[in-house]
Amino acid sequence: ELEQVRLPYKNYIFHKVFLRAESTFELDYLVITPYGLVILEVKNIIGELEFSINPSQLIQRKEDGKMSKFPCPANQLNEYKYQLSQYLLHYNISVPIHGVVIFASRNSFIR
Predict the structure, then answer these.
(1) Three-state SS for 108?
(2) Residues 6+ apart with CB under 8 A from 6
């Protein structure tokens, strides 16, 4: 569906991008625009979601009462932005890098 989005400027959208900088990393989506790069970190997590600061994590509570903990997606996105900047630096490329975490499920509720 993302490929069907019409932006008012030329852009390129890449899905599942694998790169290696200080370590190997995978970007869910990488959007290249005239204004910079945008990393889209997509989460398909359902239920009530709560961000915890200490420790930094995402807590999921499902309707059946089950609770799961995940690494904080904001921290993950910041790491990907850093890794991508290091990758580009290796090729002497300087461009703004932005990112956003997207919760794709309509059954996700952030508390």
Answers:
(1) strand
(2) none
Exposure letters 7-38 (e unless 16+ CB within 10 A, then b): eeeeeeeeeeeebebeeebebbbbbebeeebb
pTM of the complete model: 0.85
Q: What is the DSSP string of 34-77?
A: TTEEEEEEEE---EEEEEETTTTEEEEE-TTS-EEEEE-HHHHH
pLDDT tens readout for residues 56-69:
999 999 989 899 99
- Which helix (H) or strand (E) is 111 found in, with range? none
Measured CA to CA in angstroms, residue 107 lies from 68, 71, 94, 96 at distances of 16, 20, 38, 33
